[in-house]
Specification:
Radius of gyration: 18 Å
Number of domains: 1
Order of helices and strands: EHEEHEEEEEHEEE
Helix content: 10-25%
Shape: elongated
Structural class: alpha+beta
Number of strands: 11
């Protein structure tokens, strides 16, 4: 197995509410994103290549403009703050930065233990809301669960990848000083602890989810 199917929704996500741990606002969000992405990079799960967000105006809402900034492996909060300021839409001097998404390639292991690379294996988001800082990690592929999207068990792939994700999530709990809560369930699954919840099993198989891929 060297080709991964990607679900249009999360297979699982984990959320950290940081209002009692880190101040709200853009500077704090950039610092948090840098620390979290560095940890995920150390685990081989996310090599950041871009940061993107939608702009909005208080009292108006979204203005339909998205900005994407390229990055090279590590996030520099001070540099990003300057680049974000320079990228503010000229027609909207009061525009604010929405949810920051950090994406890039990650490494996974196939059934034989060979390293493979996949875009957006793990996606990190940090919300610089002026009242409450929060962060989110989401996964969209079946390698983290015991069954593939067809419902077929793939224990070797699961054993080679799920513990890596669980270890990174546990370290993020420690780094952030709070335990993540499971994000909302989707058709493709939901988080349970530091892994993916086991689905209903019938005759040794999980659900076939390919009708929505």
């Amino acid at each position: 197995m060297s080709f991964l199917m990607r679900a249009p929704e999360e297979c699982a996500s984990w959320e950290w509410e940081l209002d009692n741990i880190a101040p709200p606002g853009l500077a704090s969000a950039l610092s948090t994103a840098a620390r979290m992405s560095a940890l995920l990079r150390d685990h081989g799960l996310l090599e950041p290549s871009r940061v993107e967000w939608l702009w909005f105006v208080y009292g108006t809402g979204g203005i339909g403009i998205k900005t994407t900034l390229p990055v090279t492996g590590r996030l520099d909060p001070a540099d990003l703050a300057q680049r974000i300021e320079r990228s503010r839409p000229s027609g909207y001097p009061d525009a604010q930065v929405g949810n920051l998404t950090v994406s890039g390639r990650g490494t996974w292991l196939d059934a034989e233990g060979e390293q493979r690379h996949e875009q957006d294996l793990v996606v990190l988001s940090v919300d610089p809301d002026e009242y409450q800082l929060s962060a989110d990690v989401a996964v969209f592929h079946d390698i983290w669960g015991y069954f593939d999207f067809h419902g077929v068990p793939h224990p070797e792939i699961y054993k080679r990848n799920a513990p890596r994700l669980a270890s990174a999530l546990a370290e993020l709990d420690t780094l952030l000083g709070t335990t993540a809560v499971a994000g909302e369930a989707t058709y493709f699954g939901r988080a349970e602890g530091h892994g993916i919840e086991m689905p209903d099993v019938i005759d040794g198989r999980g659900p076939d989810l390919t009708d929505r891929l």
